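GST C-terminal domain-containing protein: structure, please.
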Amino acid sequence: MGTANQQPIVLFHYPGSLWAVKIRAYFALRGIPYHECIQPDVMPRPDLAALNIHYRRIPVLAIGRDIYFDTVLMLEKLEQLIPGNTLGARDPTQQALEKMLEKWVENAVIESVVGSLPSTFMENEQMVKDRRQFWVTDISIEGQEKRRPQSLANMRTHFNILEKLLSDDRHWVLSTDNPGLADIHVAFALDWIFGIPEALPERFVSDEFPKTFDYLKRYNRAIATANNQCLKLESLAGADAAKLITESDFVEPEGDVEHDPTFLQKRQKVALSRSDESDSSRSVNRDLGTLLALTPQEVVIATEVTSTTPEIRLHAPRWGFAVESVA
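Here you go.
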């Protein structure tokens, strides 16, 4: 087993992915070099399928032969596995606030951000068809036009919360000297939507929420500066990424199965899928493997890429994912 600093890092994503923006901002602020493997913005994704990965969300992060799903887990692992200039809070109270800010954005702000997109976003028929496989929301031009006014109203509520937090003229949300993990949690989605034409007019924020507007400009400049200073590694084609990953080592120990309400046992054959997708999507976009670790925070399964290559390990958060026994 190697360390994360010794193993290659590969980020599978597509340009414009909201969640990939979050991980890339983290890499930039920490100056962590990584390879990109650019993916289509809709299924299928042959590069991931070649690794025997059926998970349909983007991004997917590989550190050596350990593969991570979901940005929540990715950020936790990057903080743990790569020492040095970490971005997370150290004080327990601030750690709790950091996590609360993360959940606020993921469970409330994101819905409003997506609902605020212009209806022209739904003119991409290929994207709409793809997202309908797992989104519950009415994905259509008419549906977006209907939900957008309420979403913009909700955005004002979110901006009001942030404006109050920034009312003491702090530069960053936890009063740090530099942007930290909490700032990525808070700002990534708002910064993303500001970059989309006709999504959120500048005056919508600048007139009523000037401190928030200045904060988001400050965040954008910080990420841009960090990106310019960060070492850039080559972008990889799918075959090259797969070769690099399968010839690498693991960066984490195998782990163990703790007592779990599912009563699953170590080395049992299981299926791993997102619990927030439709049954039809889960039946297609699930990963089969051998259960290695199951804790209140994480599930890890081992899967073979091919019969002649070493196994890889898929990591997912326990929350938001289902792990079930298969025959």
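Notes: The beta strands are 9-13, 35-38, 60-63, 66-69, 269-274, 287-294, 298-304, 311-317, 321-325.
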